[in-house]
Amino acid sequence: MTTKVCAIFGAGEYYGDPDPALIPSDAYVVAADGGLDHTRALGITPNVVVGDFDSLEGARPAAADGLRTVVLPPLKDDPDMLSALKIGWAAGCREFRIWGGLGGRVDHTLSNIQLMALLAQHGASGYLFGDGTVVTAICDGSLSFAAHPVPEAGHMVSVFSLSDVSLDVNEPGLKYELEHGTLTNTVVQGVSNEFRDNKPASISVGSGTLIVTFPAEVALPNVRLAHEFNGGIGELDTEVSALLAH
């Protein structure tokens, strides 16, 4: 089953222009705050612009631009990227391709990696692109990678457990073929594995959430889920945080 793609442009590092082939012509495009600077530079018109605009260098969107704009308060609970995901989710998207979500502030990078797990835990897929690497997550399911030529330097792929425990982890087709393994969020056994030349591979987890990193030149994997997932990732929150100290 195909799903509508949401392309999100954040305010982080870009490491060069995105591959146009990864942005379908019918993608639902969201510019998150300073990501609007990048969509302008790329000549991409977003469907929605969202943020408190603390990282935007150019002019704020104006009514004359004809863009749907969601202005968030600076003192909020949800980061701009989560708000962008919620907007894409409400538009019916269940696959999210994100640029400008890695690099820069490490806390933002960690936050965005956690958001990939949030998507996975609700049956959706998210991909963070940056510095030649893609970061994604899978929950109770599998990622299948097509066979592809591997350069002499290798194509590294790493697997980490974000959940406390991930059970029945399998990595057939990789250099180190883990079978029915158990990973925890303090075990790094899955780091620096490798794809094999012209050999299909997959990464699966029976129960738990994995973070997976792989080279950007490798085609996006086919995602299969072990069961149906219910619920959403929450409603868009445009209110000032109720947690502020008085």
Task: Looking at this protein, list some descriptive labels.
alpha/beta; Rossmann fold; 2 domains; 13-stranded mixed sheet; 3 helices; 13 strands; globular
Mind explaining what this structure looks like?
- Residues 141-211 form the Thiamin pyrophosphokinase thiamin-binding domain.
- Pfam families: TPK_B1_binding, TPK_catalytic.
- InterPro entries: Thi_PPkinase, Thiamin_PyroPKinase_B1-bd, TPK, TPK_B1-bd_sf, TPK_catalytic, TPK_catalytic_sf.
- This protein has 246 residues and is of the alpha/beta class.
- The chain has two domains: 1-131, 3-Layer(aba) Sandwich (Rossmann fold), CATH 3.40.50; 137-217, Thiamin pyrophosphokinase, catalytic domain (Rossmann fold, 3-Layer(aba) Sandwich).
- 14% of the residues lie in helices and 32% in strands.
- It contains three helices and 13 strands; from the N terminus they run ββαββαβαββββββββ.
- It has helices at residues 35-42, 80-90, 106-120; strands spanning 5-9, 28-32, 48-51, 68-71, 95-99, 125-130, 133-145, 156-161, 165-170, 181-184, 193-194, 201-215, 222-225.
- Strands 1, 2, 3, 4, 5, 6, 7, 8, 9, 10, 11, 12 and 13 form a 13-stranded mixed sheet that branches.
- It is globular.
- The mean pLDDT is 95.
Task: Give a quick summary of the entry.
The chain is of the alpha/beta class and 246 residues long. 14% of the residues lie in helices and 32% in strands.
